[in-house]
Recover the amino acids of this structure.
């Protein structure tokens, strides 16, 4: 399944058809792509939060995460991507319940996994967590994911192009709600289990040799 990822950028129609054919033969072959691809934003978040740091709104003080807190945040990000793909897969199946070729759960999750690939690759921006970089990157990957949705529905789900616009709008609406809900859940879970004093500023890092990368 990894070989299909570049094709999403230069030949989406043909690539979605090939993805459909592969999923028909091996319904769960996308799992390594989901589990490994989700590591990209997770590891990037861990590195950026613990080694590069960021500036809070209204302050010029650079803040860092401790190693333990950064690792927990990375795990939360990984779980969020995996959970969101599973939920989105069932949302796709639910939205398409009246279509002639209603997808099984495996097809829905596979479809959601490939739609998540722009966000996974865009997660590399978390290596340098600055607002001027993160905001445009995630805006671009969100737009690209929407474009892939409208390419993928007719070719992967065997829908007429005119039907794809309606179903695509339904999937986008439900998907945004699911994505925000999953993100908030794992962020609050991270805050609940993260140890006290998870933030450090530059001076505290210099005084604590255990935080020096």
């Amino acid at each position: 399944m990894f070989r299909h990822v570049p094709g999403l950028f230069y030949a989406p129609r043909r690539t979605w058809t090939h993805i459909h054919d592969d999923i028909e033969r091996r319904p769960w072959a996308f799992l390594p792509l989901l589990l490994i691809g989700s590591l990209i934003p997770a590891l990037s978040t861990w590195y950026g939060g613990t080694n590069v740091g960021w500036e809070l709104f209204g302050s010029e003080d650079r803040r860092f995460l401790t190693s333990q807190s950064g690792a927990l945040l990375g795990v939360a990000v990984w779980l969020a991507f995996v959970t969101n793909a599973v939920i989105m897969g069932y949302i796709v199946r639910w939205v398409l319940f009246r279509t002639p070729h209603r997808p099984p759960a495996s097809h829905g999750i596979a479809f959601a996994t490939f739609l998540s690939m722009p966000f996974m690759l865009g997660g590399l921006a978390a290596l340098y967590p600055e607002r001027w970089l993160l905001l445009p990157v995630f805006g671009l990957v969100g737009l690209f994911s929407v474009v892939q949705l409208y390419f993928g529905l007719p070719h992967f789900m065997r829908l007429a192009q005119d039907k794809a616009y309606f179903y695509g709008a339904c999937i986008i609406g439900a998907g945004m709600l699911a994505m925000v809900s999953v993100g908030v859940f794992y962020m609050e879970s991270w805050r609940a289990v993260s140890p006290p004093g998870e933030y450090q500023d530059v001076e505290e890092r210099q005084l604590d040799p255990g935080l020096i990368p």
Notes: The first helix runs from residue 7 to 10. DSSP finds nine helices and three strands in the chain. The radius of gyration is 19 Å. The beta strands are 54-55, 62-65, 199-201.
